[in-house]
Amino acid sequence: MFSPSLWFLLTALGCTLAFIEIPEEYLAEIREDQAGESAAGEYNYDNQGDDWQGTCATGEKQSPIDLIFQDSKVSSISRLRFNYYNQSLRTPLVITNNGHTANMVLPVTRDGHRPYINGALLPGDFEVQSVHFHWGSRDSKGSEHAINFERYDVEMHIVHKNTRYETMAEATQHWDGLAVLGVMFKSVNRLTTQHYGLNKIFNQLPRIVEYQSNATITGQLNVGQLLGNIVTGQFYTYNGSLTTPDCAEAVTWTVFDDILEFPHRQIAKLWNLRDSRRKPLINNYRSLQDTNPGIRDVYYRVIQDSI
Ligand SMILES: *[C@@H]1O[C@H](CO)[C@@H](O)[C@H](O)[C@H]1NC(C)=O
Ligand SMILES: *[C@@H]1O[C@H](CO)[C@@H](O)[C@H](O)[C@H]1NC(C)=O
Ligand SMILES: *[C@@H]1O[C@H](CO)[C@@H](O)[C@H](O)[C@H]1NC(C)=O
Ligand SMILES: [Zn+2]
Predict the structure, then answer these.
(1) In the record, which residues are listed under signal peptide (predicted)?
(2) Ligand 4 being an ion, which residues bring their Cβ within 5 A of it?
């Protein structure tokens, strides 16, 4: 027998997930994520976020920004440490079109560990929560951050929560609540075999074209695979915000300057998604925000042998 909530979900889902059992613990996480998404209220990308209110309009440590090498403090930051990033996650994983992006809540590993990051300038241990993407369209690039004035085709965000806070809702109320890893994708015309995990995710996109549809991913997947083959030793890091309402200034950003090359054929699948108005979900990126160098610094880490 299913628990009542699982039963409710399976009824709501119709056939897509009907025969795949999803652990109650993971369902609870998905529900928490969706509650957070609902709490943000209605918003869209018609003006790239320039019409969003509240902290989005008044904040002084907003994201995304242009990450400029010349304006950064190049310092000997210790490396970013990835813990349990190479351990297989419990499956199935659920990927959802939430009207603003393709979002996947990440469960614990098969042996019950929650992958986390620390090191670099992170103020604590940050457990992985979810991954989502920002993209453009056939004619435009869709990364949120820019690196040395250049924007890229897609930007992936891997969202982490400081272990000192119980919930995402609580974490967003503190400057040290969240850590997001940003990875830039550049579209290439050849197929790459190096991105097993990402290909698994992108292969499901045709099944989540409609708003609130979801699909499952089974088999072996670990969080490390999301990073493909990029060099993680060089990155920009700074204090910023969520790039969606309410734009809470709760994020330590780490944006890698090594670019992940990803097949155009896969990226094109993102442009077919639809939002809650059944309009094409394209250009779901926020415009660049003021860096406000008097108020915050942007740091750049270079690879050094001894640290
Ligand atoms: C996983 O990462 C650890 C270090 O974090 C390493 O010692 C181990 O060999 C890795 N395992 C696999 C299967 O890659
Ligand atoms: C999947 O889609 C259904 C129907 O739109 C939605 O109500 C439900 O919350 C989604 N479930 C998950 C696990 O995301
Ligand atoms: C972020 O802000 C906190 C609190 O003001 C500060 O201690 C920390 O050094 C800042 N981190 C970065 C990366 O600038
Ligand atoms: Zn994002």
Answers:
(1) 1-18
(2) 157
